[in-house]
Amino acid sequence: MLKIAFDPIYAHPLPEGHRFPMLKYELIPAQLLHEGIITKENLFSPDLISEDVILKTHEQEYWQQLRDLTLPAKEQRRIGFPLSARLIEREMRIAKGTIDGCEFALENRVAFNVAGGTHHAGSNWGEGFCMLNDQAIAANYLLDKISAKSILIVDLDVHQGNGTAQIFENELRVFTFSMHGDKNFPFRKERSDLDIPLADGVADEEYLDILKRILPELISRQQPDFIFYLAGVDILSTDKLGKLALSKEACKERDRFVFQQCINNNIPVQVSMGGGYSPQIKDIVNAHCNTFKTATDLYF
């Protein structure tokens, strides 16, 4: 059965100017339920992640400042909004949802988190609306709990996964692959194991050609036990922040190709949804829903 982490707190209201992007977290499961793609049995609400698991990835001082709401104002500005207890709870549930998704994927090949993809959070910083790096936390959980020998993080959000790259810069068992806009946020990038910077305006054919050339070779070389997929839809031409020019059809083909590689190589995959900032919320929701639909068609 397809399992999807979702909790109403994912759509927790934020200060004015940040509420619109959060609407998708309510609308994605609602749309999938409406279309009959999933039932309520597919959805699960994660608990809070424990501190000891967080501290496998994030430094203690940073985590305590988040938890106690004492992070300096300058660091809160770097994150993009002021801290609150509700916001920290949201991050903790998102991270636990990704860990739970890993457990489900180990049994059922694939699992989703409606939120997540908080790849700008480093070991001791938050940035770009990211505070706890859900897929990095889950990768360390797998290394620790199931003794995974090789993990591949496939980050196809339009923004580089700088936090993820920094967290795993000295961890040979985790290979970080980020394919992102070269002239886009973050403007100070970290070094992933493999970075593919894309010029502004890259469209369907070029994007898919690059991905289809690189990913199979990467899987063949790394032989991962597990794959994390960050499926941002800010690569769309409609995205106000993305600077790329992909169609919805190409975004869906991207998802199909990633899933097919996981299936062909019998590798479980956990999917976090990442960014999407098109002015029309329907464009964001439909593109994200296509990721779920594609997985359902291929796996179930």
TrEMBL record:
The keyword Hydrolase applies. Gene3D superfamilies: Histone deacetylase domain. Pfam families: Hist_deacetyl. The keyword Chaperone does not apply. It comes from the Bacteria. Keywords: Hydrolase. Residues 21-289 form the Histone deacetylase domain. Belongs to the histone deacetylase family. This is Histone deacetylase.
